[in-house]
Amino acid sequence: MCNDGGCEHVSRVCPVGFRMAETVNGVTCTDIDECEASSCEGTCINTEGGFVCDCGPGMKLSTDRTSCYDINECRRPGTSHLCKHFCHNTHGSFFCSCRAGFLLDPDSQAPRQKPEYVGRTFLKK
Ligand SMILES: [Ca+2]
Fold it and tell me: Which residues fall inside 5 Å of ion ligand 1, going by CB?
């Protein structure tokens, strides 16, 4: 297999992230699937010569490039309008709530005045 020192020579030719493979047509460099043994906290995506970790929605990749941390949507600059009244951060997401007397619109996440009832009559505002 490596009777003439060819392996040593070719391994220097294969870039990082590739492994040397012997085929019938000679020696080639093939991409290593780092995701087989990745330390990604989220989803591992194998790329040519490397890999990337994807943390998914609501999460951000840490500087170590493998672990994920929660995005605090309530404290992100410029996103204070996310919730009109109260913002509650959760792991991977967030939710809004309203002051007393208001209901959260499920579509717009905006608070709307709770309808007031007197007996069975709805009072329009
Ligand atoms: Ca969050």
Answer: 70, 89, 94
* 80 Cα: distance to centroid of ligand 1 (angstroms): 13
Collapse the DSSP code of 30 into the 3-class scheme (helix H, G, I; strand E, B; otherwise coil) and give the result: strand
CATH fit for domain 34-70, picks 3.40.50.300, 2.60.40.10, 2.10.25.10, 3.40.50.150? 2.10.25.10
Could you report the per-residue pLDDT of 8-29, keeping only the tens digit for each?
554 457 889 998 888 888 888 9
| Cα separation, 11 vs 5, whole angstroms | 10
CATH (residue range 71-114): 2.10.25.10
Q: Measured between alpha carbons, how far is 6 from 76 in angstroms, rounded to an integer?
A: 55
State the distance from the centre of ligand 1 to the C-alpha of 69, rounded, in angstroms.
9
